[in-house]
Amino acid sequence: MDKKALIIVTGAAGFIGSCMVGYLNRKGYEDLILVDEFDDEEKELNLHGKKYRVRVERDNLFEWVKNEDPPVRFVFHLGARTDTTEFDYSIHEKLNVDYSKKIWEYCSEKNIPLVYASSAATYGSGDLGYSDSHEIVEKLQPLNPYGVSKNEFDKWALKTSRESEPPFWVGLKFFNVYGPNEYHKARMASVIFHSFNQVREKGKVRLFRSHRPDFKDGEQLRDFIYVNDVVAVCYWFMEHVGEHR
Q1: Residue 58 structural domain
Q2: Is 178 marked active-site?
Q3: Disulfide engineering: 182 pairs with which of 1, 15, 137, 204, CB 3.0-4.6 Å?
Q4: Looking at the 3D structure of the chain, how many domains does it have?
Q5: What's the mean per-residue pLDDT of the chain?
Q6: Has residue 206 been placed in a domain?
Q7: Alpha-carbon distance 10 to 34, whole Å?
Q8: Is residue 18 part of a domain?
């Protein structure tokens, strides 16, 4: 894709979003439209030294693109409410379902390819496995409102007619992502982040008690993925989008 291509990144001041911006910069892309809530001073460091064209407040995005009509070539929709301890579903529904639908509809209307962040939280307990098959999406039972909201959007996207979808789209189910720029997430930061700080401060890691008899305390298993691997995959889809259309 042309290095002058205009690209939208939502969640741009957050953990994965800011790493996406940095990755795009390193690949020569600087005409970026960053979308987020930019009033969190802690997250400001995530954008330090990053190059972009403009910042747009999340709640102003759709009015802004309507007025400015920028020639956007690609959208990375990485913004979301990710707090798994927030049990008010209406918050997740507003930010993770309704807002994502608006992103989708904008991309469809303007013929813009889209990569969006789903979540491994959609798989729930994992009783149905972790397949990419579209056949199991309706059957999944997420364990918290965050996972439910992500799965609801996945279901909606799969049901949307071809006439009402972006020219190319993919939803990526990120597992436990760790790496730089997650310091602002406090208790919602990755286990890797917390373990690193515990070792640095106390010389040991505090393990979790197991709630299953087939796993001893501290021997639970998780899949982890480094954030730069996540954004590299997102970037790969953008660079190879022509092969999939």
Answers
A1: 6-176+225-244
A2: no
A3: 15
A4: 1
A5: 89
A6: no
A7: 6
A8: yes
